[in-house]
Structures are given as structure tokens and as C-alpha cells.
Amino acid sequence: MTGIQKFAPKYTGNHGSRGWIPARAGMTERAMFRRTVGAGSNLPCGLSGRPPVAPTNESEERETMTGEEIVGTAAFKRCLEFHGHLCPGLCIGFRAARAGLDWLEENRARDEELVAIVENDACGCDAVQVLTGCTFGKGNLLFRDHGKQVFTFVARKSGKAVRVALKPDRTPRSERHAELVRKRQKGELTAEEAQELAELHRKRSHAILERPAEELFTVRPVAIPTPPQARIHASVPCDRCAEPTMETRLEAVGGRRLCRECAAAAGR
Q1: Cα separation of 3 and 141, whole Å?
Q2: pLDDT per residue as tens digits for the range 66-97
């Protein structure tokens, strides 16, 4: 529902173009959340500056968490705050990001230690940004417009990469749910139907959060070249509109250096 959201730029220049498997034995679901969030922290692991801490007494932790409990965790709350609403797509991205981080045995990236390659620009990408620290503004969130719920995560230090792909028909939507979504897209929802849709969203979201990850995703290692880190390029005024443009994005047209928009207007 939401496209990839941009963070505030880190530099004054421009960036160049960049180009659950089951938990480990003995690790409980709640321990997995501690890995992502960091014990005693209100921030996703990595932001707090502390390493992940497993429960002090794992035998006291329940093997599973309900969807309601997961939604109440600090990590999910931050995804929810960033995205703006609870929906199944956000939950898919949340589960996929956790799967990738666990397989790689990595924490949230402070800078460009990780790379995420997303094959859609839907709701789940917001959860990927929050949990992994891979963002559009830092250049370590790469978008491939394939229309698939597929997420690939790369760790620069180890060179390891893992592909997390949603399995077919694992997040089914009822006919009524689909009907209400269509009505919303047409702007035809009544207030009562809007409440009904929100409740259906909530139930489907919780189901995704509660389902064993191995039932949701196909997770497999992949061999891909590690994407290059972000590069800074100077900005040069376009000879037509005078707007500062990344120098590598200017095009030569009739002896002038034009931005892509002006080059298109000039008939190129």
C-alpha cells in the first residue's frame, strides 16, 4: 500500500546508483524477539548500542507468542509507527526481515553493513527498513520491480546472502476481505465497513505473525556479488532548468548538459 519511504539525506551531495528459517536449536520465539529488539531496550537491536541478550531463564519463556503479543513488542511498535497502520503486508515484511537477520546471524545495520534487496514496493518494505537498518536514503535498500514478496539480505562482512520468499497461498484473504479492499480502493466504504475491514486486517495480520516461519517462507542461501557501497557525486546545475543535478544523471543534448526531465522535454 505504501511505497518505499525516504529518510532525511545524510550528505549534501547525491548518492550514486547502487547498481525464518526455523530458529536455531533451543532458541524460543521470545528469544528471537530479544535478538531483534535487545533485552531491556525500546529500540531495535543495534540502535540501543547494546548487543542482543537472550532471556536469562529461557525455561520461563513460552515457546510461542500470540499475534497480539508480537504487535505489542518494541520492534513491531516501531514498524507500526513508521508505516502508519497495521496490515498483513507489514507483517510479511516483519517476518521476512527477522528471518533474514536470524539466518545471517546479524543485527540491525548502523550504516551499510547489510544490504536488503526488495522485489516489491509494498507495505512490508517499511518493516524491512526499520528492522534491518537498510534504507533508501543510505543506499543499502535496493528495489527490483518484480512484484514479488521476495527479500534478499546480504551481510557485507561475511559475504553471506539469503533469499526469503513468501510461499504461495500462505496468507489467504477471505472473499469478504477482498470485497472490502476493492470497495476501499473505489472510495465506497461505509463507516461500518471500514471498521469491519480493520478487524479483518487485524485477524489476518495476527495469523501471519503467529504462523511458523517455515510455513510462510522459502529461505535459501544465494550467491550474489555484494552490492557496492553508496558513492557521493557532485551536483551540477542543469543548463535548462538550473536545478542542481547529480552529475552522473546529466545528459548531453545539443551541446548542453540537461537533467533527465529537461532532456525528455527537449525530445530526447
Answers
A1: 13
A2: 999 999 999 999 999 999 999 999 999 999 99
Report CA 108 to chain centroid distance, whole Å: 12
Residue pLDDT, tens place only, 91-120: 999 999 999 999 999 999 999 999 999 999
Evaluate whether 10 touches 137 at the Cβ level (below 8 Å).
yes
Are residues 114 and 162 in contact, defined by beta-carbon separation less than 8 angstroms?
A: no
Rounded to whole angstroms, the Cα distance separating 89 from 28 reads 24
Residue range 225-259, pLDDT digits in tens: 888 887 788 999 999 999 999 999 999 998 999 99
Measured at the CA of 105, the angle between CA 132 and CA 96, to 5 degrees, comes to 45
Alpha-carbon distance 167 to 130, whole Å? 23
The structure's pTM equals: 0.71
Cross-strand partners of 252 = 257
Q: φ and ψ at 200, to 5 degrees?
A: -65, -40
CA gap 222, 215 in Å, rounded: 20
Angle at 208 between CA 139 and CA 223, to 5 degrees: 40
- Cα 42 to chain centroid distance, Å, stands at 19
Per residue, the 3-state secondary structure of 128-149, as one string, reads HHHHHCCCCCCCCEEECCCCCC
CA angle 178, 184, 185 (to 5 degrees): 90
Per-residue confidence (pLDDT) for residue 63, from 0 to 100: 52
Q: Are 55 and 30 in contact, with CB atoms under 8 Å apart?
A: yes
Look up residue 58 and give its DSSP letter.
G
Inter-residue contact 219 to 229 (CB < 8 Å): no
Which of helix, strand or coil describes residue 251? strand
